[in-house]
Amino acid sequence: MAIAPFAHPRGLEIKLRATGVSMTFHRDGAMTKVLDDVGIEAREGEFVCLLGPSGCGKSTLLNILAGFLKPTAGQVLIDGQLVQGPDPRRIFVFQERGVFPWLTVEGNVGFGLFKRPREERERLIAKYIKLVGLQGFEKAYPMELSGGMKQRLEVARALAVNPDMLLLDEPFGALDSITRLLMRVELLRIWEAEKKTIVFVTHDIDEAIQLADRVMVMSARPARIQRVVDIDISHPRDISSPRYLELRDGIFEQIGLAHKV
Amino acid sequence: MSALTTPARWERFVWPLLTATCFLSVWHVLVRWSGTTVFPAPIDVERGLRELLGRGVLWAYVGDSLRRVAVGFTVAVLFGIPLGLTLGWYSGAAQVVNPLIQILRPISPIAWIPLAIVWFGIGDAAAMFLIFLGAFFPITVTAMNGVRSIPSMFRQSGRNFGLTPAQLLARIVFPATLPQIIVGLRIALGIAWLVVVAAEMIAVDSGLGYLVIDARNSGKRYDLVVAAMLMIGLIGFVLDRGFRRLETLKSIRWGFRDA
Q: What is the ipTM for the molecules in this complex?
């Protein structure tokens, strides 16, 4: 089990610690081992990427972190507490179409605020619509929005309940490459403003290096953590700097890909 | 008028009007040409309609038919939607109840007429019961299937935001299923309108179905038969139109698009 050495760039407390997490699915009498003794850590306010090939089980891991799935073995601690189910303190953001199509932009952002008094709810709705740049679309329905706007809406809905953590499952995977790039900039801006701990699942090496403080490289199924890479470049990151390319090459090699097409 | 262009405003009225005019002309010509004295021409039907209006029975009968449908349909909604949602949510319950539903569902409400009369006697209650039966199954089944087809991420989101099971039902399951429920209601209302005519021919002595059978039995007034049929068609069309309008509401329309 590989846990990163504690070279804390931010020197902050451990927010999330998953140890010895294994997951085996039983389907039609066959057993599929998806996760094998996975251990990860994320510090308070850290941006961690889980990077691995498609179908390696990184989404399964994220579902376990969210409390949607119970691992076959191992445990997940958040703030030292055992995760036993979903919790509004950590919100899961889906790949696409996670927003509720029957609610307007306002309705979606306010979805988790049902316990707050009305004035506070309206204030928070306005705040987060502004944060993700959806002003003017308050009364619009998701089907009237572009893919990128829907994804920003889902992030706003998640942030509105003031969670400590966001768990993002390839949130930009369904977007075109230009929108995806813009969304990364947006997400970093929001992360800077809101200081949440983020666990971000992706299969895109560039995406991981552009966003994360640390990248956990996962192997093919059954997934293990192969290596943890500290991305020691400050934001905004120059994606043609020697250090960026060096990190990128290292991860390409780790995954076993020759980076020539 | 290509399939790719949206029809202009005038076209939406002119083309149907033209179709109706052609239909009536052909009907008129065929009746005159065949020299039939039994089957009425459009003009006879129009006279028949005016006679019914003059006797004050037309609106009374329309009202009776609509009232029976309203009651039977409403009861079917009140039982069918909660039952369908429950069965969709608890797959265990569905396993127990669904076989029964699937066997009862293909039985035409018409086949229930003898039992309806035994249980409720001749009268409104028997007709309403038959309408209830006709509407209940499509409503239940579409609601059930609707719940089953909710993407799992909607439920997960709901749980993630800390919703209780009751809130999950009200704020996720119901709105996510609503487009399919509306389709179920539209189908059910169509069936209810079919059934009321049949029920009124046997179980009661008012309503449009009664008018059809009564016009035939008391003096072979086929002009009135066709006039009643025309009213049945028009009202059925208006009811369906009303439901289609519901489907265009934005909080529902998402269910009818691919994107």
A: 0.86
